[in-house]
Amino acid sequence: MRFRDKNHEQYEGDDEKPPEEVGLRDRLAHFTWPWFACTMSTGALAVVLGNTPNTFTGLQTIGKVVFIFDLVLFTIFNICMLTRFILIPRKILGSLHHPVEGLFFGTYWVSVSLILNCTYTYGNSSTGAWLTKALEITYWMYCAASFLTGIIQYSLFFRLERLNVGDAVPAWIFPIYPLLVVGPLAGTILPAQPPDASWKIFVSAIMFKGLAWAVSFLLYGLYMQRLMTSALPSPTTRPGMYVSVGPAGYTAAGLLSLANQAPTQVPPNYFTNISVPDGEIVRIIGIASGLFIILFAYWFFFVTTIAVIVGSRRMSFSLNWWAFIFPNAGLTLATIQAGKVLKSDAINGVASALTILLVIMWFFTAFFCIRAVVLGEVLWPGKDEDKTMTRLAWGWKGNRGNPEAPLTLPGVMQAPRSVDRAAVTLNDVFRIGGHPRVEEDKKRNIADYLYQTHYSYYIVSITTTTTTTTTPTPRTSTNIHQTNNNMSSPATQYVYVPNLVGGQMLRLPIEDISSDDEITTTQQPIASPTLSSRYTRDSSPSPSVESVESEE
Description:
This is Malic acid transporter. This protein is mainly α and about 550 residues long. About 50% of the residues lie in helices and about 5% in strands.
């Protein structure tokens, strides 16, 4: 099956121009994690429909239909993602720390949480005790997976990526997002759980909610710094600003939901010996905390809405548009819970109005999403979040025979080894890059020619020797070219030789290179420079490059 690009956009050069015709496998090779924002939004809508205060005959049936549709979408998306990883195995781990796509891995787990939430909401009344036990087990499995996701993903970003604060977006919160929805999930399944299990779930939900809110609040600071000191996100990605509504919204919803159930969960004199039951004290504190946060979510909602309206004429579809629904569903759930604790018909009316808006925005976003797939605006080589994934070509066909496509662990290098003699000269370096004018470029700053990757490297040490052996051969052919004309020239000129020794990159001072040099690797890491190879096409600015310190 072949597909043709129905858009005719202008690109600066052939290297940046996506292919006009691709196959189904080429498209599935770019099925990225942000697609699960669709299932997250659909599941969130089903949860809201099952909890909205003002109901009518048939609303529960509509909610069940939405839930079943969410299950179907989630299954299809899992198959598509599995197909993508089978076609290009290296994307399994590469997608988890990619500076754009990797942030959306949390949407997968949030989708799981919302499915569990809907399972109780729509299935508890028509099933037996087995569902209660199954939800207890899956709850703890979900908490463990979400906790590990928050730790591992942030560790990968801290070690392998360098994100610019000036480009901070609410999506930086996504790795911890799965823990933000633990509170609403626990508040939903608690009533059916036996006393011992419900108490443990109640306590764990508060603890995980505290962790998620604390991390989110720290990242809120970076996002606010970006808004105050840099430009707003581009109009196309501006709907993603609604993600900032979610942490406060889901936190408020979780606190209010758990607070309502505190009198039945907390033993009367568990913390104190006073006459007032401890559960009532916890309830008051929880309600006050939830109400304290909820307007923070509304503030971000209105700020983002203004930004989206201002840039609406320049917007084109991206998967960020699904942020119209799922973060605002958290705000709606918080409003529903606030209406319950305050017994306010006015607040319940606001919750119903928000529910209607969510339904409208879901259909609006779904229409443009389907349209974008048909026109080739998304799910197309060179147009998705993974288009800047290093050392990989666009699509599936371009990666056949690519030695970088198989699965490799991030940051894991081959064992350092020595080479007796490396006939490395400027001629050899430029020959590797296929540069036609060697003599003229000898005088140029070779340090401006960088080789980008997300892997760790080793500094090379060079000692003079007269030993003569065979010359090592580079593992892959690469193009060395100038990627940043504004970099300051270092005091010492270096040549970066990719994949010359042990599959690593060598950093060689020009004046020290001769045909009789012995090159040995050491354990000292250096910063990752910028990449360009025949397996990479980058149509967006790369992250800023750290300065490389000279070896002492």
